[in-house]
Specification:
3 strands, globular, alpha+beta, Heat Shock Protein 90, single chain
Length: 111
């Protein structure tokens, strides 16, 4: 018999910040406090902080001029198994290559 999905009861924090690099630390601190209150250890907090700062900085740096008046959304959802961070930005997104390739040095190391 196939296993049924495990039910979870995640907790969530939704926040936003102005499209301004000076606002990033405030919202990432809020997320860090939220995750700390829900039992994340120091390594998890640091990893999430680093990822969220980078994502927020990119959302702000690459926002087109017309979108700079719109807030950047930040969502954090966690339960006992996962932490999910989302940054809702107003950038134009990415043009993904048809085929991904590793840099020459990394490709040789993975062989």
């Amino acid at each position: 018999m196939a296993e049924l999905p495990v039910a979870s009861h995640p907790v969530a924090l939704r926040s936003s910040l102005a499209c301004d690099l000076g606002e990033v630390r405030v919202v990432t601190g809020r997320v860090r406090d939220f995750l700390n209150a829900h039992g994340c250890n120091e390594a998890e907090l640091n990893a999430c902080d680093l990822a969220l700062v980078e994502a927020c900085n990119n959302a702000i740096r690459y926002a087109p001029p017309a979108a700079r008046q719109k807030p950047v959304g930040v969502e954090c959802v966690c339960d006992e198994r996962i932490i999910e961070l989302r940054v809702l930005d107003h950038t134009s997104g990415f043009d993904w290559p048809e085929r991904a390739s590793l840099p020459e040095k990394a490709a040789a190391a993975s062989s």
